[in-house]
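Supplementary Methods, section 5.1.

A reviewer requested that the exact input to the structure prediction be made available. We therefore reproduce it here, unchanged from the version used in the analyses.
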Amino acid sequence: MSTTILLRAATRADLPHILAFIRELAEYEKLAHEAVATEAQLDEHLFGPRPAAEVVIAEVDGEPAGFALFFTSFSTFVGLPGLYLEDLFVRPRFRGLGVGKRLMIDLAHRTVERGYGRFEWSVLDWNEPAIRFYRSLGALGQDEWTVQRVTGEALRRLATTAAD
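The structure derived from this sequence is encoded token-by-token as follows.
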């Protein structure tokens, strides 16, 4: 029996699926406590007047199987925009069918088609299956860089700090 994989741009009707994918990914990454996004937030920031990100939905035989959420970044060194992959997730029962690879190829195609200078993402250092997958696609780790983040109360405090 043949398996049909379809990639398509997400629509508002996909919001429940997108939120479910986000929660499933957070569970896999042992970060469920951080997954506080709501459908209303996603609706505003994915489909509102100023979309901050885009989503590609992968379907296998008509069933939502995975997604990729991405946005435009900018490299001052290269002088060009880039495509930043925030989340890639394929439900476990659909892994091994090529869904993740199809999503990555689609995003690489978008990057080239849009004239962007790079396609990048982060991966948790313990996620060996994902790292092996990304290396198989030709990705190179940027181990000399570390992610820095300010959120919550620290962000509010920084935002209200007077410059010296």
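The CA atoms of residues 16 and 39 lie 7 Å apart. These observations are discussed further in the main text.
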